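call fold(seq) -> tokens
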Amino acid sequence: MYHLYAPGAPETSRERFAKYACAGRWSLYGNLKRLIEQQPWDKLVTQNAQVVFDAAALCLEQYHVPDPPEIEGLYAGDFGVVVSSLVLSQLFSYPLLDILDHVQHIAPHYLSEQERHRRYQEAAQNFRIRIIQAHLHLLRKLVDVGGIVVLLSDIRGFIFSASGTENDTQHRRTLPIVPRGLTELVRESFTLLEEHHWEWITDLPEEGKLGRGYEVVGYVLPGNERSLANANRPQ
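ret:
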């Protein structure tokens, strides 16, 4: 979700924050679903994995990412503090899972081929980057002059089998969640004031069960250099 705060704002603004707290996924699912439905899957599955994942890649390539997305009632420069808390990866992960779920439904024997399909992997990575850029542009748009953006994101997931020393790779397997160049993408939209890293352990290891956690990054970013407070407001 987006956490949108306007310090000292009247009750109506706080109510508006609650109303739009879950608006961050835009219309991704509906638009992507239409693209998926347009593909001739019945014919494709009778051929091979290459053409199936070509079609999956095409869906991602043709999807138009609103940049920045327009969310009714949220105006440029309207917030003193904007907090994006552990939502960034969800914005692209769920649509990508939707595509793979569809492939699994129509041709489960092809699902393991996705890692070897270069066009699909490139389309998925480009999709992640476009979503991240649009999200950053929205945060930049909403924050007022002199305001602050706080962006928190999981960057890698990991599983571990034992409590080892710090950075003990022998007991840990990691899985990247966001593109490696996230910090560079952030710097394209903001001046970076602070950057912090930490780990979030969700499950401790037990007998016969792996522990799970996430590596998390937090950025503190400044607001706009010029006022946007009157932009995009209803007349």
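The CA atoms of residues 110 and 174 lie 25 Å apart.
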